[in-house]
Task: structure prediction
Amino acid sequence: MKTTPKNFISKVKQIFKIIGFVLVGLIIFGLIFEQVAELIDKKTLKAPGQLIQVVDHKMHIYCTGESKNGSPTVILEAGGGNIWATWSRIQPKISQFTKVCSYDRSGYGFSEGSKDSRTNLEVVQELELLLRNANVPGPYVLAGHSIGGYYIRLFASRHMDEVKGLVFIDSSHEKQGELLNQPMSLTDKVMNKVMEEVMYSAIRVGVARAVMTFDPALLGMPTENLNYNKGLLLSQTFEQTNKVEDMNAALQSASQVGAVRDLSNIPIRVLTAQSSIDGAGDMDWLGWQKDIANLSTNSKQITVANTSHYIHVDQPQIVIDQILELIRN
Result:
């Protein structure tokens, strides 16, 4: 019997109907799965460090190790959107030699939220209060990844006598903020909005959690504290008290960082990912990294091959070696 156009169309409709039912079922399953997983995360994940009062909210700081013979305390400043757990391949090693602290900026990880939008200076002022209230005195060696490079640069300019060294890990530069602050075309705005909605939808239906589970390296996450990274980042995406992400606010106030042009002879180490240089597009990433190194008369720049933007995850020993070198000097 020959298939008539009417029968063919009927079969196609049935196939699409089945696909539709399957997709709806998967979405419903994903929504339930993600909600249950987030509830479990909230009940089971506990802060490993202290919750310290900083003005009107509490912030989480996690310190390990002890200062030996007056050795500096190492402060680890995470990149945009990352939490203390991103340092799981660095902190345990450094703690064998001195005291080392990672922390969560306001609205991230175990830290409570502050006001909606904070400039770079306000973020640094919160760190200053956190260290003071947690009784973590200097001297300090600070390591900052990505946008964290903004904060350690500004912190050092305000505490020249207390900062004994800085390690910039594929750090952001103020020119990056200037570029990203330029007016966007309508097409770019629409594309950004579409990508944002796609990302949020992927989180809502459990896709992002599945990706983090099966391929954490795809998002630059160490496996050592994967449950914290998954649970805290995903559950806070829609509940974040700081509604303007710290990275966006930092780029908008990049001029505060750009005003810091002279860090005298503070020892500086600038670790630059080769992949970031190659993929920078219109941005002069290598030139910007050299500019950061020029902030001090005592600096060294190292280009790191075979790594993503997350050097401290992919090549942790390089970061550890540079921090220890500054501690011992």
User: Anything to note?
Assistant: The chain has 14 helices and eight strands. The domain at 50-183+214-328 is CATH 3.40.50.1820 (Rossmann fold).
